[in-house]
Design brief:
about 170 residues, mainly alpha, Arp2/3 complex 21 kDa subunit ARPC3, two-stranded antiparallel sheet, 6 helices, 2 strands, about 0% strand, globular
Length: about 170
């Protein structure tokens, strides 16, 4: 039963991630603003860092296959996995506090959004770093408070509800 529940929840969160990424996001050449982090975060918080990472990476692959918006690049899939993994490392089996949420978001934004995605964009578009820095810093500056607020006020109640429903058996 637990494995079935995990599979169903993961599948739903993958679907939601694809929808938020491919249809409900703002895209420019070097910046994408979306809420794709939310279902990946929910998977990480409820099911752990590995399943959170798998949720992000499978959503990226499915989105790229079904709704391509350029050439598939595995670096973005790796970034999606690392996103879920970071959230899970910090928030899984821990109380979601403002401090933990801020730490998780800052680590994820620095490692994934600022460093890795910038490297992937340089590789794909062959543009110099200084051409990307302003856009990437702008994106990171916008997304940090949004992620902190939504994780704390949306994911925390979801985790509380899920824990009450299933008696603490989150997997």
């Amino acid at each position: 039963m637990k494995k079935t529940r995990t599979l169903v929840i993961t599948s739903l969160l993958i679907t939601l991630t694809v929808i938020l990424t491919r249809f409900l996001s703002i895209n420019t050449s070097f910046v994408r603003l979306s809420l794709e982090f939310l279902p990946i975060n929910v998977a990480s918080v409820l099911l752990g860092p590995i399943i959170g990472g798998i949720t992000g990476s499978i959503a990226d692959i499915i989105g790229a296959i079904l709704f391509p918006s350029g050439t598939f690049f595995p670096g973005f899939t790796l970034s999606a996995f690392i996103t879920g993994f970071i959230y899970g490392l910090i928030l899984y089996k821990n109380q979601i506090t403002v401090l933990r949420t801020v730490i998780a978001v800052f680590i994820k934004v620095i490692i994934v959004d600022f460093i890795l995605v910038t490297i992937w964009l340089i590789i794909i578009f062959k543009v110099p770093l200084d051409a990307l820095l302003a856009a990437r810093l702008f994106k990171c500056g916008i997304i940090v408070p949004i992620e902190i607020i939504l994780i704390y006020f949306v994911v925390k109640p979801i985790k509380k509800f899920y824990k009450q429903e299933y008696g603490g058996n989150l997997k």
